[in-house]
Amino acid sequence: MDEADELFSIAEVSAQIGLAPDTLRYFERQGIVPSPRRDDAGRRQYTTADVELIRMLVHLRETGMPLADIAQFTGADDKVTDPAGLRLELLTAHRRRVRDRREELDRALEVIGRKIADYSDQITSSLELLDRPDCTIAFSVHGEGPLLFLVGAPAGRAGFAALAHELAGRFRVVTHDPRGIGASRAVSGMAAPTPEVLAEDLAALVDRFGGPALFVGTSGGAVTLLELAKRHPHLVDRAVLHEPPLVSLLDDADLADRAAAAFAAAETDPQWAVQEFFDFSGAGHHTGPDQTPPAHMALPELPTEELDKNRYFLGRMAGPTVFYVPDVEATRRISVVLCAGALSHHQMARRATQALAGQLGLPLIDMPGNHVGASAEPTEFARAVVSLLER
C-alpha cells in the first residue's frame, strides 16, 4: 500500500496530532471537519490527507481563527463552489489578524521587558546625578572596559537597561535619562529638549568621565549624536546611529504635515497625537523588504501617566528632533556607522536613515528587530552592535 493510501485509526491520529479522540469527534459533530470513511465495523479510518487537514485545523485554531471559518477552510461546508479561492481568502484574512495580534503582543512584550530591565537596573546599579544650569540629569554606570554611552530620546535608562546589561561584560556602559524623562524630571524654567540642548547635556556627561567615548544612539538619541558630532567632535571615538527619524531628509510633504499636526495637538489631545504618530511612523510594526506597515491600527486608550509622558515627548521633544537638519560635513569628520532594523522596511525612520546614508556615502547596515530592536531584542542587538563598535 502506498503511503498516500495509508489509513489511521482515531487513536493513531490522536497520538500524532495531540488531540484527544473526544475532541476529534467533537469537531466532526460540529461540522468543523468532514467525517472520515468508516470500515465494515463502523470504525473511523483517516487518510494521510485527513490527518494533514486536521493538523492544519490545529494551527488555525491555536492562532485564533473562528471555528466557522475553519469549517469553511477544511471543506466541511460542502456548499462551497470554489474551495481553493475561499481557502486563499480565509488564510489571507487570518494572516492579517495574526499579524495584528503579533504586533499587539510585541508591544506588550516590549513594555514588560522594559519593566523587567528597569527593576533589574534599580537593583544592580546606583543612580547618579549630574547638575546642569537648568535641571539635573540622572545616569547609571554598568560594567568595566572602554567607555560606551547608550543614547536615546525619549528612551532613557529604563529603555536601555537590558542592552546595557548585555554590553557590560565588554564596556563601561553609561545610560542616562534625557532632560524631562524618567528621573531627569522636567522643572520650571528648563530649556526645551532640542537636539542642541540634549547634545550639550550629553557633552557635559561625557566630560565627567573624561571622554572621548564610543556611542550608540537610537531614534532621537541618534539625532542627539549628530549634533554632538557637530559641536564636540573630539568627544566622539565612534558613533553607531540606529534609525534617526529625520523627516527633514525625506521629500514627503504629506508626512511632514502629519508629523507637525500630531506634535501641535499633543498638549490638548495626546491620545490622537500618539495614534497619528504610531500610524505615520510605522515604527511599531515588523516589516520586511516586501512588506509595508498598515496605514492604521487602532491603539488602546492610554492611561493618564502615558498621556502625560507623550504631552512632553510629542509636544516638546519630537518636533525639534524629526525636523532637525544634520550637518553632513560635520558628520563626515567622525567615525560613524549607520544602521536600521531588518524589520523596519518602508518605515519613516529607516527611510530617513537610508537618505542620510546616501548623503554620507555610507552603507546602511541591518540590525536585529525593528525600530525598537535595542530594547525589544537586547541580546541579538548587543551581539550585532559589538561588531560595529570594534571595527
What does this structure look like?
With 391 residues, this protein is an alpha/beta fold. Helices cover 51% and strands 14% of the residues. The chain contains 15 helices and eleven strands. The protein has helices at 10-17, 21-29, 48-62, 67-74, 83-124, 157-167, 195-209, 220-231, 253-265, 270-281, 304-322, 328-332, 348-360, 373-376, 378-389, and strands at residues 7-8, 37-38, 44-47, 128-132, 135-142, 147-151, 172-176, 213-218, 236-242, 336-341, 364-367. The strands form two sheets. The protein has an eight-stranded mixed β-sheet, sandwiched between helices. A hairpin with a 5-residue loop joins strand 2 and strand 3 (44-47). Helix 4 crosses helix 5 (83-124) and helix 10 (270-281) packs across helix 11. It starts with 6 loop residues before the first strand and ends with a helix.
Estimate the mean pLDDT confidence. 90
Which strand order do you get reading across the main beta sheet? 4-5-7-6-8-9-10-11
Q: Which class best fits the helix and strand makeup?
A: alpha/beta
Task: Report helical residue fraction.
Answer: 40-55%
Beta strand %: 5-15%
Rg of Cα set:
26 Å
Largest sheet: 8 strands, mixed
Count up the helices. 15
End-to-end distance: 61 Å
Number of separate strands: 11
Shape, principal axes of CA atoms: elongated
Low-confidence stretches: none
Order of helices and strands: EHHEEHHHEEEHEHEHEHHHHEHEHH
Which properties best describe this structure?
391 residues, alpha/beta, eight-stranded mixed beta sheet
Helices and strands in order:
Elements: E1 7-8, H1 10-17, H2 21-29, E2 37-38, E3 44-47, H3 48-62, H4 67-74, H5 83-124, E4 128-132, E5 135-142, E6 147-151, H6 157-167, E7 172-176, H7 195-209, E8 213-218, H8 220-231, E9 236-242, H9 253-265, H10 270-281, H11 304-322, H12 328-332, E10 336-341, H13 348-360, E11 364-367, H14 373-376, H15 378-389
Parallel strand pairs: 6-7, 6-8, 8-9, 9-10, 10-11
Antiparallel strand pairs: 1-3, 2-3, 4-5, 5-7
